[in-house]
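hey so i finaly got around to running the thing on Dynactin subunit 6 from Meristemomyces frigidus. pasting the sequence first so u can double check i didnt mess up the copy paste, my clipboard has been acting weird all day
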Amino acid sequence: MATTSSAKRKTDIPAAKPPCAIHSSAIIADKAQITGTHPVTIGQNTVLHPYARIRAEGGAVTIGRNCVVCEGAIVGTASENGFDVVIEDYVTIETGAAVEAKTVGYGCEIGVKAVVGREAMIGQWCRIAALEKVDNVVEDFTVVFGDGARREDVALREHEAIRDARAEGMEKGAALMRKLIPSAAAKWAG
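ok and heres what it spat out for the 3d tokens, dont ask me to read them lol
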């Protein structure tokens, strides 16, 4: 089956790069994708693994400091009638997770292939387990697991030392990633 030259030309045109503000210490793997027309801001020491996708077609995407977006994870909205997505500091978004939430709070963990939908607003220090789907408000220190069941993480809420240790672990993980993943952040510069 023959293809026309006009059809071929369309596939040869690279997607427009969104306006990006990427901190100089952030690691953006060469195979990570950032698409859309809205601004994308990536904070200090944040790591985007290969094949992580940031979608700013429907609104701006802001990712805070010391975050990790793993391989195959998607952050942001693709539709034209989307909204801004804010990922606060010290958030880990695991492999294959999809996050369209308006807000994911400080210190959260989004599990493997979890889906955090458009209506979600995730509080601080929450954990969304692997394969879970959330599309509503999740209060601070909540663990969502097993078909939407929820419980409060009392130890994390009551012990600041545990929260500090998790934050320190993320900082050390980012330092390791800087050694293992060559950064291609320059290709996203204006």
